[in-house]
Fold each of these.
Amino acid sequence: MPYQSASLERVYILRWGRSVLASDIEPIVAEMVKLCKQHGPIVGIALMPPDLSPPDGEMRKLIGQNMRAALDASESLHYVIEGTGFKSSIMRSVVTNVLMLTGQRGRISVHGTLDEVVAHIEGRLVELGLTKNQIVQLVKARGMFTSSPSSKAGLSTPPSLGR
């Protein structure tokens, strides 16, 4: 499966598969726009596995063409690039540098784990009437965690969050 998505009020969670398909980009952005129209600007979380293939030139162009609509539908976007190795660390650095070019510093951020994201947005979640636990439970319930022990979908959740 190329991607999975789930939402809880204004929080939109996207789980990429091992590759990003061109045919997925527009439906994902459409989901984001629809959720924004229903609830207001979204808090987007994208979970990216450590073995995700980098987008080719055509794909980067397509993502760029749709980025404005995604940003317009969002109050913030959080990319979780999973993994603990050198490759994952480099990917986080590269993505961070590319995203800085969008001029959206503060609205777009890169993280290593889902825990980092929910800790980063905890205050906003409270304002929205949500908890970190609800986000983690939604991800678990939808099977959006990887089975790889090295990545666990970026989860380093202490027992208090995972219950």
Amino acid sequence: MKKIFVIISVLLFMNITFSKIYAHHAMEYIEMESYSTAPKNQKVFHFHYDYFVEEKDNPDFDHWELTPGISYGITDYVMFDAHTHFAKFGKGHTINNIELSPFIEAAAFSLQGRIKKFTFIDFALVLTYETPFKRSREYLDGKEVFEGKIILSKYFGVHSNICFNLNFIQDGDEF
């Protein structure tokens, strides 16, 4: 137990000290990936809804994002994922007197692979490419994003899991 505590403490320290922590789309939240993948030849549909309050006293600046997607199990250890981001901005979000009505912001494609168990911690790798659509490039300064993740995970019984993501992200300005 002491060994597990030391390893987790070192990983947390390394993450906080040596890496940059990014939020998906530079928004106010961080997306975590898990070790699990879709089983071979099975599809998993997923749907995220996020509502953002920019100024608590002015709802005109609120906005939401819908993220529908599908994951497909290529093998029991490799999964392909595709999803898109639909955004709707409030009346307060205007550029050159143009209201940012609902639009498709970006599409993302990922390949996730689990490494077969060889130690008490489970490992997985994720490679993601995200490309913004034209309106996102024009109004939100959207850029292509390349992301790599190392996922460390440990299950404790049926309903308990600790998951740790190490993210490596470059956007269009960095390459």
